[in-house]
Amino acid sequence: MYNPKSLKAEEFINHEEILETLEYAEKNKNNVEVIDKILEKARELKGLSHREASVLLACEIPEKVEEVYKLAEQIKKDFYGNRIVIFAPLYLSNYCVNGCVYCPYHHQNGTIPRKKLTQEEVKAEVIALQDMGHKRLAIEAGEDPVNNPIEYILDCIKTIYSIQHKNGAIRRVNVNIAATTVENYRRLKEAGIGTYILFQETYHKESYEKLHPTGPKHNYAYHTEAMDRAMDGGIDDVGLGVLFGLEMYKYEFAGLLMHAEHLEAVHGVGPHTISVPRVKKADDIDPDAFDNGISDEIFEKIAACIRVAVPYTGMIISTRENEKVRKQMLHLGVSQISGASRTSVGGYTQEERPHDTEQFDVSDQRTLDDVVKWLMDMDYIPSFCTACYREGRTGDRFMALCKSKQIQNCCHPNALMTLKEFLEDYASPETKKVGEKLIEKEIDNIGKEKVKQIVRERLKKIEQGDRDFRF
Hints:
By secondary structure, this protein is α/β, with parallel strands linked by helices. The chain has 20 helices and 11 strands. It has helices at 9-12, 15-28, 32-42, 50-58, 62-80, 119-132, 150-162, 182-190, 205-211, 220-224, 226-232, 249-267, 296-309, 323-330, 368-377, 387-390, 395-403, 408-425, 429-443, 449-463; strands spanning 83-93, 136-141, 164-165, 168-169, 172-176, 196-197, 238-241, 273-275, 314-317, 336-338, 381-383.
């Protein structure tokens, strides 16, 4: 039985419910009356059910699809303004005991060099990232209880937060590691992590078990129920995602939204972020071996429908995708992107981009300065802000502000101040010139005169050497 309040994976991600949803969507994909009602509901900015959103994903009427795209862009502006949060992944170790057939870190791969960073190497990687201007990291590691135990992850987090280099500091560490226990999630929370991220890969149980033939990740229920354990352990910001291309995209889309609905039903807080990665080429991985690959057009449609269905969530697209796709996704609801990413263990300290330990090919290989200028040229504000996390605006507190669209009162000025830090400390002369002009224009978009005055005063102080102001 389908039950979004159940704590059993097969009940809150129910196979029969997904099949019925896909049948309903197929039946109504060209039903203008039904589609218009769904769009009318979406404009209320309270989200859609997995069944309603699946109809929009299936819709084949060009003008209605265009309505979805325009609505997705407007919803993103309503909730998050024109800010784009920037982060980078940091790979700690590629040791892994799992047999995932789509990942080059799988245990059977004998060609990839195995590497695990020492704490000194973690420090060197963090300094390299700080010297680019990064303030927010997502740490990644394979699942290996011997080489990558929770104690190692905790030590790395402690090291990352401890490093102050020139004006650099990592102010938020998000964690993307394997499903674990409530106790370990509690320890991660105590270590001061931001968001706990775990990709489902696929919600189709039979496919999931085939794609994960060996190792602890083979256990579908344990993996799928991880977010409930994380929240029980006190982590109130969690990030979902599937790896598009492994299974039929309409199935994955429905499952992803059902997972979001489950978190809302049980914990009162939906996913802080939703990521949309696609299968990419890597060491011994050929994406063409998976027969569920999706075109750029379908990929963009998925993103727009996620934004319309889950208006409050932060949507992430990584450097897996090229500049052209990332640009289009920014118009369809994406609010967070990675920049200057290296997906190899120890990659940031090497002058030449290493490929031998990459988890996947990086399509967008521009520098962080290039990405920042690119965003500003399109009138987006690159944001390095971590204020909500450090001010305790997480979980239900963040969602209450976000859903009421009040979060912009904090985020907009914070974004401008963190951008100013980047311009002063790391930007090229051309990027700084573009950024100063953008900041001056965006100050006028701050609604309250008092806040506007404070921001101007703090921008002056940043020019004089002060750092880390926040509302």
